[in-house]
Amino acid sequence: MAGRRGRHHPAITPDVLLRAYSIGLFPMAESADDPEIFWVEPELRGILPLDAFHVSRSLQKALKRSSLVIRFDTAFEAVMASCAAEAPDRPSTWINTTIRTLYTELNRMGHAHSVEAFEGDELVGGLYGVSLGSAFFGESMFSRRTNASKICLVHLVDRLKASGFRLLDTQFTTEHLKTFGAIDVPKADYLKLLAGAMEGETLRF
Questions:
Q1: From its phi and psi, is residue 101 left (phi > 0), alpha (psi between -120 and 50) or beta?
Q2: Is it the case that residue 5 has pLDDT exceeding 80?
Q3: pTM for the predicted model, two decimal places
């Protein structure tokens, strides 16, 4: 359930984008072909409490059997491109050229990160998001092998916990994310959690 929306100013910059995250806004586009973006501020915000993160027994077994190689920040643009690509279960996407350009710059600045699953030299799964303060804002994920994106999420949470992050924002909840413990929180409660996570310098991812 989305809250208010507003079309972006043409002069949006990576710094403006970070400021938006710090006050509870994030951008989306109507479609990959629409060059404009709008700000979203959900009345119910999805978060994944790090201390309540749950990995099912079946996924634990899959993790032990998996031959996927997990890397961080080695193929950020490729992960974004894969998240933006059409797929049988996702005929359209909200990731347009404007968003790809902005987040690629955030990656260069050290504020956007990717988790990547490789099978040999092939990128078969991944996710990306933004880090600011002690918060990580998950943006999108993709999977071309069974459990690839789920395995990336497990590795993301392990890294966030090890680095001292306090908030993992998922924007919205899905049935997929709920299996890991994702919950919806009212906007007012979310903003309190966000304010706490914005205290201090951005943690190293």
A1: alpha
A2: no
A3: 0.92
